[in-house]
Amino acid sequence: MNEFINTIITRRSCKKYKSDSISSDIIEQIIEAGLFAASGLNKQSPIIIAVSDKNVRDKLSKLNSKYDPMKRDDPFYGAPVVLAILADKSVSTAVYDGSLVIGNMMLAAHSLGIGNCWIHRAKEVFEDKEGKKILKTLGINGEYEGIGFCVIGYPAIEASNIIPRKPNRVYRIHN
Questions:
Q1: Across the chain, what does the average pLDDT equal?
Q2: In angstroms, rounded to a whole number, what is the distance separating the alpha carbons of residues 138 and 11?
Q3: pLDDT digits over 33-47, tens only?
């Protein structure tokens, strides 16, 4: 099987991470993959906030937990690095473009042996007063919508179960 397709098929969400830090080189490779995601009319509207500072990471986790219906103590599952993806609200494809960025980063992380998981509630986090304060601190101006968080780290457990795909999800039209 093609190595890239195998990466797609074997990637799983990681929900338990080691506290070990990830080298900045690996983080940059993952970010680079996100920056090269397809975007509507090549507008490249998404931005990425890379957080490896534990205090800011914990602040984002606590803020995310505020909107988590399950009220987990750490909705980032202990991942040491959080990549927050936002996109310009004025771009009609912003949500799709940001989603592709996260997808690319998840696949890149997996290909490098880094566990990852998409975490929701970025929209709520960055609409919150505290979230807006973080954006302002970074000098991010404009109207951005939080699309999602991609948390990354070394997996504490290996997820190997590949659940079969549901049947009857492809419909074909032939000549």
A1: 96
A2: 32
A3: 999 999 999 999 999
Q: Return the SS3 of 59.
A: helix
Q: What is the DSSP letter of 36?
A: T
Exposure on the CB side of residue 85, measured as CA atoms within 13 A: 29
The label of the residue with tokens 């338990």 reads 16
Closest listed residue to residue 63, CA positions, set 147, 136, 142, 129: 129
pLDDT band at 134 (very low <50, low <70, confident <90, very high): very high
The rounded distance, in Å, linking the Cα atoms of 81 and 153 is: 6
End-to-end CA distance of the chain: 28
How far is CA 103 from each of CA 73, 80, 120, 142, rounded to the nearest angstrom?
25, 19, 13, 24
- Sketch out the chain's domains with CATH numbers: 14-153 (3.40.109.10)
- Rounded to whole angstroms, the Cα distance separating 155 from 32 reads 21
Q: What is the pLDDT of residues 78-125, one digit of tens each?
A: 999 999 999 999 999 999 999 999 999 999 999 999 999 999 999 999
